[in-house]
Automatic annotation (TrEMBL), chain A:
Spans traversing the lipid bilayer: none
Subcellular location: Chromosome, Centromere; Nucleus
Keywords, in A-Z order: Centromere, Chromosome, Nucleus
Protein name in the entry: Centromere protein M
Chief location category: nucleus
Native source organism of the sequence: Oncorhynchus kisutch
Keyword Nucleus included in the entry's annotation: yes
Entry keyword annotation includes Nucleus: yes
Gene Ontology CC: one annotated term: chromosome, centromeric region
Automatic annotation (TrEMBL), chain B:
PANTHER family: CENTROMERE PROTEIN L
Lineage, highest ranks first: Eukaryota, Metazoa, Chordata, Craniata, Vertebrata
One GO cellular component term: chromosome, centromeric region
Protein's name in the database: Centromere protein L
Organism: Oncorhynchus tshawytscha
Gene designation: CENPL
Keywords: Centromere, Chromosome, Nucleus
Principal location: nucleus
Family: Belongs to the CENP-L/IML3 family.
UniProt-annotated location(s): Chromosome, Centromere; Nucleus
InterPro entries xrefs: CENP-L
Length: 185, 363
């Protein structure tokens, strides 16, 4: 099985590589352009994919991927299912702070709330952060890009004294249970 | 089947019973009530859902009891049942009504008819009780409420004389609507202050202008808010499973599902299934005929239909959204339109819709 491995290649100098995985291939292009424009000090390479596993032909030329972002559109069930199946092709080393879930249309009225709950349970079980993004406006895309860049720089080792594993213990997703309810007051 | 049990191992101090809380503390009371009760009733398989204002936590059940076919005419007057079925209703949610009395329906009728006439003829003073062009009928439909906490259903009809009608012609119904609460969330209903009556589901049928007038009258008189209620795809799937489950008793004649796919231009897929095939698929998904239907069974059933479609047409229906489900027993649309053709399972459908309405409310 062609797993994507986090540490099998050498890192580049002052470089960070991010992989955006999205089944619909709509949001990743906008997000990629914004990410590259936002970051001035570090070389950011954005790779786009529809799903994992990645094609074998590029295996040699592909750089080391520091952060894998799964973009899930809550309006379609297929988006979530494709992300779930792609997860199998990631080496377990990625789940220590190098995977992130990005969810769009979480506030949409027509989305059944159960779908967001299942994405949250998935993210919580893998100890990964879950970001909600607004993909229709430029401010939303810029905000999402900035947040991804913050996580990417830590995952690529460009932030001193912080590693992906350390950050993931702070940013990981939690699923609200009945016990959390009492903390509301 | 998997049933998720919430069990609490941490020791929580029992709060002393809250005798009477001042009105501005009512929100806190609601939440503490729900976690106290959740300790006792935690064996129910539920998800925690939040109303759209994130102020109340309600339970969204992950499994529902299989509905028993019941002759509703034993509980409800058959004429009144006939008013509710075979018509297409548009759904809205209603926040709790302040000081709504079921005993004052006659005075409400007079006030509402005066209001409608005065709005239609701006500038003329209208006396309440006059012979007016519009006549409003408020009536109570007894028997639909399931628990003691549910308020009785209120049915509203607006009658009007047709233009150019002879003097003695009967007035025709131009608009009808009904407010109902069937098996509403018990914790929520009990936590409401006593002056409020909760009838969260409003079904209307008729010209939009009259609907707007009725809603504004209610808003002015009872200090409530209205809003559109849609039926999301999970609830449409529940309804499909409900109607399929009835097939051995009542022939549903067809199961039609309509999906909208986000292609350019958007594509609508109407998928009609022979009832016997759908029933066999449903029966094979329902491994044991227990009393509960769980959401996993419903999702598996729909996934089975989707994968069959994919095998033949190479179109993945889960990439789109489910818009409409219809059978001979009724039809429901994503935008909030429902038609109940047969009164047998009306309480189960209304219970599901009441739950949707309670979740959609901003309180």
């Amino acid at each position: 099985m062609s797993l994507l491995k986090p540490f099998s290649k050498l890192p580049g100098l002052n470089t960070a590589n991010i992989l955006l995985v999205e089944n619909e291939e709509q949001f990743q292009q906008k997000l990629a352009d914004t990410v590259v424009l936002q970051e001035k000090t570090v070389n950011v390479n954005v790779r786009l994919a529809r799903s994992l596993p990645l094609p074998m032909e590029n295996e040699e030329s592909r750089p080391r991927i520091d952060l894998v972002v799964f973009i899930i559109h809550l309006t379609s069930e297929l988006s979530f299912q494709s992300a779930e199946t792609s997860l199998k092709y990631l080496d377990p080393g990625y789940f220590q702070g190098k995977v992130c879930f990005l969810v769009t249309s979480a506030r949409n009225v027509s989305v059944p709330p159960e779908r967001l709950v299942s994405v949250r349970t998935l993210a919580a079980s893998l100890h990964c952060p879950l970001l909600c993004a607004e993909d229709q406006t430029t401010e939303g895309v810029t905000t999402a890009a900035r947040r991804l860049l913050a996580i990417l720089k830590v995952a690529a080792g460009l932030v001193p004294m912080a590693t992906g594993l350390y950050l993931s213990t702070l940013t990981r997703c939690t699923v609200p249970s009945d016990i959390d309810q009492q903390n509301f007051e | 089947m998997f049933k998720i049990h919430f069990r609490f191992f941490s020791v929580m101090e029992e709060r002393s019973s809250i005798v009477k809380t001042p009105l501005n503390n009512v929100l806190a009371q609601r939440r503490s009530n729900s976690y106290r009760r959740s300790m006792r009733s935690c064996v129910e398989a539920t998800n925690l859902g939040y109303t759209s204002g994130h102020l109340t936590a309600l339970r969204i059940p992950r499994s529902r009891r299989t509905p028993k076919s019941r002759d509703i005419t034993k509980q409800v007057d058959p004429d009144q049942v006939a008013l509710l079925v075979t018509k297409e209703w548009e759904l809205s949610y209603v926040t709790p009504l302040y000081q709504f009395r079921h005993t004052q329906l006659k005075s409400y009728s007079k006030h509402l008819s005066a209001f409608i006439v005065s709005e239609k003829q701006q500038g003329l003073a209208i006396e309440v009780g006059q012979e007016l062009g519009f006549k409003v009928n408020f009536s109570v439909v007894l028997g639909l409420a399931e628990t003691d906490e549910d308020a009785e259903t209120v049915f509203i009809q607006i009658l009007s004389r047709q233009a150019f009608a002879a003097k003695d012609d009967a007035q025709k119904v131009v608009w009808s609507g009904w407010l109902t609460c069937v098996n509403g969330d018990l914790e929520y209903l009990r936590s409401l202050p006593s002056e409020f009556v909760s009838l969260p589901l409003l079904c209307t049928r008729g010209p939009e202008s009259l609907t707007v007038l009725v809603k504004s009258w209610f808003e002015k008189t009872f200090d409530c808010c209205f809003g559109p209620l849609g039926i999301n795809s999970a609830n449409l799937q529940w309804l499909a499973a409900l109607w399929i489950g009835c097939h051995p008793n009542i022939n549903i004649q067809y199961l039609k599902l309509v999906w909208t796919l986000p292609t350019l231009p958007p594509m609508d897929v109407k998928y009609t299934i022979h009832p016997q095939d759908a029933w066999e698929l449903w029966h094979s998904v329902r491994q044991d005929d227990t009393t509960d239907v769980s959401i996993e069974e419903v999702t598996r059933f729909i996934k089975g239909l989707q994968s069959h479609f994919f095998r033949h047409f190479r179109i993945e229906l889960s990439a789109g959204s489910l818009m409409q489900v219809s059978t001979a027993l009724g039809s429901s649309h994503h935008s909030g339109k429902i038609k109940i053709a047969s009164p047998t399972y009306i309480t189960t459908i209304l219970q599901l819709l009441t739950e949707c309405a309670l979740l959609k409310m901003p309180i």
